[in-house]
Amino acid sequence: MAVRTLFHEIVDSKLSPQDLRLQRIVDESMLMIGAGIESSKQALTVACYYVLADPEIEARLRAELEAAIPDPEQIPHFEELEKLEYLVAVTNEALRLSMGAVQRLPRIRRDTHLTYGAWTIPTHTPVSYDNYSNNLNDAVFPEPHRFVPSRWLGSPKVPPTRLLVKDGVLPLAERSLEHYMTSFSRGTRMCLGINLAKADLLVSLATLFRRHKIRLHESSSEEDLKMAYDMFVPQPRKGSKGVFVVLEK
Q: Are 203 and 77 in contact (CB under 8 A)?
């Protein structure tokens, strides 16, 4: 029996003919590839590279996993993995530096104008931002290009007195550090798959670093991670073959 996919469900649904056009199916497939595969793959690649590139980070992560998972063949449910503070910190830092979609995401306020500092933005005016600039904002994330999982430990907060943008606009209240990471976007149009993606990363990283001994291949470098092109998700320099690891055990 053939395995049913998302596209079977769409075609067999009660959607209108307009929503069942071929272009709609193509759009859905691109969304699934970009949001459901490429972004998670990028986050996992970032996590693996930086953990393996830093012996202290790798040792701390492995120690936490060994204490929490006595039998490497029995990886706990993701709800249990969410209780592992350093694993969650590594995941958050990987999500920050992988950035999700880096294309600008336009939003329109239809009911009233927007006020931003000294500016009034009229109703129906498209406003956008990009995750690259936001996730690398050094006012919120000091040394933003460094992979620092410890920045997420202890439920960190960003005080309202910290300058967030150059024009002097300040937040109204203290907010969690995670509030300012926009890899899944924000608001009513944020990524529907946020919880699935986080669970996927927690289980994948826990399984990989609890069961296996791996190391970076000599051909891989940080240049294979740095964004050179915006192709929905960040893409490295031309000629990069990506990040390779060697499975030793």
A: no
pLDDT, tens digit, for every residue of 54-87?
999 999 999 999 999 999 999 999 999 999 999 9
pLDDT digits (tens, 9 = 90+) for 182-212: 998 888 888 888 998 999 999 999 999 999 9
Residue 51 half-sphere exposure toward CB, CA atoms < 13 A? 28
- 72 C-beta neighbours (distance < 10 Å), count: 14
Report the b/e string of 188-227 with b at 16+ CB within 10 A: eeebebeeebbbbbbebbbbbbbeeebebeeebeeebbeb
Cα 123 versus chain centre, distance: 31
Closest listed residue to residue 181, CA positions, set 88, 48, 92: 92
Token pair for 116? 């931003």
